[in-house]
Amino acid sequence: MVSILKDIPIDGVKIVPCRIAVGNRGIVKSFLVAGEDRVILVDTGASDADADIIMDALRDMDHKHSDLKLCVLTHRHGDHTGGLKKLKKTLKFEVMAHELDMPAIQKATGYDVEHVVKGGESLPDCGGIHVIHTPGHTAGHISLHLPRLKTMIAGDAIVSAGEHLMVSPTYLSSDPEAAHESVKRLIAPESGPGASAGRPRRRHLFRRQGEHGAYFRRTASVSENVMRRIEVSRAIVAVLLFSFLALPQARGAEALKKIRIASKAPGESLVPYMISQRLGFYREEGFDVDVIVTRGTVTTQVVVSGAVDYGNGGSIPAILGGARVKIIQVSTDKPSQYLVVSPKITNIKQLNGKTVAISDASGNSTLLFRELLAKNGVAVETVQMRALGEPSVRFGALLAGTVDATMITIGNARIAQAKGFRILAYSGDYVSSLSANLETSDDKIKSAPDEVYRVVRATLKGQIFYHRNMSEAAKFIMEALRINDLNEAKEIWRERDKQASELAQIGRASEEVMTVNIERVRDQMRAVGATSRIKGPVTLDQVYDFSFVKKRMTKFAAASGTRCATNTARKRCNHVSGKFRISESQGNRGGDRVACAATATTPKLLAGGQSLVPMMKLRVARPKYLIDIHRIADLNYIREEAGRIRIGAMTRHVQIEDSQIIGEKLPILREAASEIGDAQVRNRGTIGGGLVEADPSGDYGAVVLALNAEMKCIGPGGERVIPAADFFTFAYTTALQSDEILTEVILPIPQSSSAGVYLKLERVAGDFAIASAAVQLSVDPNDACNQIGIRVTGAGTVPQRPCPSKSFCGARRSRRN
Amino acid sequence: MAKAISLTVNGKAYSGEAEPRTLLVHFLRDALRLTGTHVGCVVGRCGACTVLWNGIAVKSCMIFAVQAEGDEIVTVEGLAQDQRLHPLQEAFWKNDAVECGYCTPGMLMSAYGLLSKGSKPTDEQIKKAISGNLCRCTGYGNIVAAIKEAAANFT
């Protein structure tokens, strides 16, 4: 994180960290805080050699040695004061330290401390520097708060340990309790002069920032004694960036609102979001953003269901498929996919007969791939496509030699290239198509336009930063792709920069590009048989809504000459509490249950909890109230009645798997139940819960559709029966009303001359299906097919019928088989 | 908003307090100090937290503690009796089915859940039963062998 700030002055102030290695144990950092004509040094390193490093750094930042006016020592330890002698001999500056540590410093260095502080003082430099007394590590430890830079230089009060920042460990502090209190005060809203903060949330404050990390690699196994011995030479200075504490005054006591962006593409396409989050652009708007990488087909679906707020993906196929989502910002207007092949393939024609990894049947990269083949005169049918889902899996399959080619983005493409694979074509040379978009649901645009605007504003700021600061963006690319080569990262930046026209860099696409893209996706969807729910011509505003981007850029232009992102007053955000209540339904009758559901506000029913609970853990679902219905014995049964099997909604997967009736009469359902999750999940999960969750890759959906089952529901209005064909309306969405509950699944028993099979393609045991198929087929006495139910999952938001059923009817069994 | 919870763990009555959102695994470990049950991913992927709930194997990170009120839980601490290893544990020991040990409590409880059903499982059934338990030391072969051996002596 420090390195990010290095070359970017904020309002004329910048911080330069001097990296000083101590032995082989870690790095001491001294910091040069540079205003326009004055430089302040914070800590001096341990030795004369460190002093040289600091003087070099000073020269590198184009400051004269005489610009250094003041040296602030955070505390008395030798690894922070040892360089003072050499510096004092060469340069002319004054020293500042806390009164309690001052005597020890004077004694050790032989130099006077000219400025003695107690904490609470403010220096006028660099937009104001506040001195905070943070005793504990030593009695006279001080930290510096630089509000304008949103930065806290916390000396050794806070150290880094692996992924996190933490309080200086007990064995390193002269007074551990005071050390804890100090950090508490740093976090607390009322702490520090000029500090204003929202509700403290440790998670945030201590999240690992940037490049700290290795210093405490071995603490867990090193005994306290050993640590004491190395204490003197050990050295840590941690800078706490972007903490709540460091927020500008205007943020007041607001809490940050958590915003979740789902993305199907990890890697370099997420860099603009990373920039907005790390450089505090989201924070300026009152947001804290988490990017969740999801399964490819799910990205748009979770957006429309409201499970996450925004999505980053290529959503046109989904929108044409009926998703109530709009693209609100564009980041690139050329495709980002490259065709990468195994070394032995040298041109596209050689793909004939080869195996190619694709995402799913109608995914963006798949459409691009088909077009690329078509333009090169390769018949699509001659290539074997394997739907492997997300890019990382496709990339892995390519590296492992499981497939001969795949479409991936430049970052992974170049990593593959370094391993001897070949980048055969760039899809943008053949087609111009939108690639990465920010999207959100129609509901969100309608209900929270202000939030959408501010998210767009912050995201756009990161995007513009990305295109204008190659070196900084390249460092983020290194982190995103976990590569170490800066030049390689810059190459990737250049390639990706080319994928965005000037208009796309500011978030929009031309009308022509939009039109061409919608039409191309429609054509391709037709070719693969995916359903478009929009009949007739598609208007641009059914897919795009650039009003937010335009509003932002208008204001940006109007305010040109001023720096973007002034801190305007903002509305208070409602922070959704992480707490919820569980009420257990004691009633044993359906009626009681519904009454219970109707009285609570926005409750969610907890059945087996095998999806809902982990989703809550991941903050994908955040119900305020849960009603636990797992004990309702009335809803746990499997009964045969008048040619039908009736299964209570709370019947567990394992019961279906083990049921003799189901095994005999509906083996297809038994197969599906036995494929769900793993043994523990099947022990708890229920058929009702699974059906109502309506995951596009769920196992029961295809089966109940293939069997023409019916769903019995009950609500305040009484009972009703929904045919399976009408039950699934969209991903994670069913025809159930919010006050209704599914009570029973009614499955007609197929005739005796009927057979069914459920097949599931999964990556590892217990996973959701990449795709699955359920087929139930009946024949008449002449062996001709008279009835067939067939559905596949993973090919759309709900289980799909891959071909008209009647095309099979009348077909006869092949005699040869 | 903490609620009092009473339940039976390994045949012994326990009570403690937990917020509604407390997961069973955290309640067992933090409130009851039964730390034999391990916490891995906490989102139902790894199976390290598997316990028996009213006789069936479940992942205790996917259940709220309040849901187990009045119920019977068996954790890995409930296997050994009178200072003697349970036959399953004995078999794990004999077959070197433990490497780092992180998955072991979950593996044992999944296996125990399987063997409690009474039948003599095939290799396939054993593999299916432990498919929800991840072992990152790749010791599945020995684990399957151990469970099979234990099944032969299981009563």
Please name the defining characteristics of this protein.
heterodimer, A: alpha/beta, Metallo-beta-lactamase, Chain A, D-Maltodextrin-Binding Protein, domain 2, five-stranded antiparallel beta sheet, 36 strands, 32% helix, elongated, B: 155 residues, alpha+beta, DNA polymerase, domain 1, 2 domains, five-stranded mixed beta sheet, 16% strand, globular
Describe this structure in words.
The complex is a heterodimer of chains A (817) and B (155). Chain A is an alpha/beta fold and 817 residues long. Chain A is built from 31 helices and 36 strands. Chain A is elongated. Chain B has 155 residues and is α+β, with helices and mostly antiparallel strands. Chain B has 2 domains: 3-78, Roll (Ubiquitin-like (UB roll)), CATH 3.10.20; 87-153, Orthogonal Bundle (DNA polymerase, domain 1). Chain B has a 5-stranded mixed beta sheet, sandwiched between helices. In chain B, α2 (87-94) crosses α5 (140-153). The longest helix of chain B has 14 residues, at 140-153. The termini of chain B are far apart. The mean pLDDT of chain B is 92. The interface between A and B is medium-sized, with 26 and 31 residues.
Shape of chain B: globular
Decide which structural class fits the backbone of chain B.
alpha+beta
Major protein interface = A-B, 26 and 31 residues
Can you say what the CATH homologous superfamily of the largest domain in chain B is? Answer: Beta-grasp domain
CATH class of the largest domain in chain B: Alpha Beta
Please report the number of helical segments of chain A: 31
Task: Please bin the fraction of helical residues of chain B.
Answer: 25-40%
* Oligomer kind: heterodimer
Q: What's the average pLDDT of chain B?
A: 92
Tell me the β content of chain A: 15-25%
| Shape verdict of chain A | elongated
| Spatial extent as radius of gyration of chain A | 31 Å
Number of spatially distinct domains of chain B: 2
